[in-house]
């Protein structure tokens, strides 16, 4: 579903035309110690993330109080096309960050780069201060950054439980030395199976554990992907369009699961086109267009941002046509039909008109 950039919230800046670089300065009562006090009070993670982000200016590249992922100068080109060009981006620890943007903005490519599924032309990025460049996906996952895919990658010919076990951090065959000690890996396998079954219960997939993943519905596959991602005890979970193709009944359940990840202390970055979902669960929203980050801020700031509205309108292919556009399309169609009839035969012979 294409994102709807129409304003829904109200901007503290009071300026609906505020562009990406015209973010409000921190308010007079901006309080640098607020996040630390919130931690000390033992506030719920959702509240902590919101407190940490509350007084930040809505500025592209704005430093976060406690960044878990930091991206610097990352570019990726395909031939002449610059798919990603991100100067500086920080993701706040413990928050849910929504990554939005029109089709082709570079969101999935950025996900691919950050998780080792693709390599950039330039740039560096880090997780918890540790550079992640040049690492393979399984190494990135082992460090604590996992992802799901827009089109789910559940292996159809494996059972649900087998799919889960593939997500486990310590596979029995992973280490040659462990494989030489059957008791170690049997114990590990048992622990992994128990963990998988726990997660399947939590995601209400336990009754399907012996079914082939190929028999699951689209929504159930999304749940399976999320559950499998949790098998490796990640710190950062990156979800690529987790709600796409999911029926409304499962949407609420998926949204609940995403919020639960934050409650358990994980940082979530998710790509989503449905702005209702973005508004509902994001603590912070990053907007990309044509490979660049064009805006950042809390959800209510985004639909007010002129650059964001322009980016979406520029790419909004399914907006209703204006009457001028309708006339133009009709004229082009008529011209095409006439051209088609011209070379040979009568209209009825060629087109049935
Ligand atoms: N492997 C590739 N080869 C060539 N071009 C690519 C490749 N992968 C992505 N692109 C191009 O890079 C640009 C960014 O694509 P990307 O899939 O990252 O966008 P997106 O924001 O995730 O889009 P969507 O919301 O439609 O999934 C697009 O123009 C796309 O066609």
From TrEMBL:
Q: Which InterPro entries match?
A: AAA+_ATPase, ABC_AA/LPS_Transport, ABC_transporter-like_ATP-bd, ABC_transporter-like_CS, BCA_ABC_TP_C, P-loop_NTPase
Q: Does the keyword Nucleotide-binding apply?
A: yes
Please report the stretch or stretches of sequence annotated as the ABC transporter domain. Answer: 69-315
Query: Which UniProt keyword terms apply here?
Result: ATP-binding, Nucleotide-binding, Transport
What's a GO cellular component annotated to this UniProt protein?
plasma membrane
Which spans does this entry mark as compositional bias, Low complexity?
9-24
What's the superkingdom here? Bacteria
What name does this protein carry? Answer: ABC transporter ATP-binding protein
Q: Which organism is it from?
A: Goekera deserti
Phylogenetic classification of the source organism: Bacteria, Bacillati, Actinomycetota, Actinomycetes, Geodermatophilales
């Amino acid at each position: 579903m294409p994102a709807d950039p129409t304003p829904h919230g109200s901007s503290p800046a009071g300026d609906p035309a505020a562009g990406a670089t015209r973010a409000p300065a921190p308010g007079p009562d901006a309080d640098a110690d607020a996040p630390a006090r919130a931690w000390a009070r033992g506030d719920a993670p959702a509240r902590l993330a919101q407190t940490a982000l509350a007084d930040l200016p809505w500025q592209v590249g704005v430093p976060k109080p406690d960044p878990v992922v930091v991206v610097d100068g990352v570019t990726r080109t395909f031939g002449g096309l610059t798919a990603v060009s991100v100067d500086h981006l920080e993701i706040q620890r413990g928050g849910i960050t929504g990554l939005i943007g029109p089709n082709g903005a570079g969101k999935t490519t950025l996900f691919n780069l950050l998780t080792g599924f693709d390599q950039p032309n330039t740039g560096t990025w880090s997780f918890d201060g540790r550079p992640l460049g040049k690492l393979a996906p399984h190494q990135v996952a082992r460090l604590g950054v996992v992802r799901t895919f827009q089109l789910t990658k559940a292996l159809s010919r494996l059972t649900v439980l087998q799919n889960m076990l593939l997500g486990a951090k310590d596979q029995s065959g992973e280490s040659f030395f462990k494989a030489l000690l059957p008791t170690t890996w049997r114990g590990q396998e048992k622990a992994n199976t128990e963990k998988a079954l726990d997660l399947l219960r939590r995601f209400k997939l336990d009754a399907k554990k012996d079914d082939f993943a190929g028999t699951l519905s689209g929504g159930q596959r999304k749940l399976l992907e999320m559950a499998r991602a949790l098998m490796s005890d990640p710190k950062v979970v990156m979800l690529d369009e987790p709600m796409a193709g999911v029926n409304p009944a499962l949407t609420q359940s998926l949204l609940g699961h995403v919020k639960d990840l934050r409650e358990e202390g994980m940082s979530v970055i998710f790509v989503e086109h449905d702005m209702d979902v973005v508004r509902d669960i994001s603590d912070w929203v990053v907007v990309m267009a044509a490979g660049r980050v064009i805006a950042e801020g809390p959800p209510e700031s985004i639909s007010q941002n002129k650059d964001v509205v322009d980016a979406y309108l520029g790419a909004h292919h399914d907006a209703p046509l204006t009457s001028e556009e309708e006339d133009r399309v009709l004229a082009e169609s008529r011209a095409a039909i006439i051209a088609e009839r011209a070379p040979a035969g009568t209209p009825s012979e060629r087109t049935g008109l």
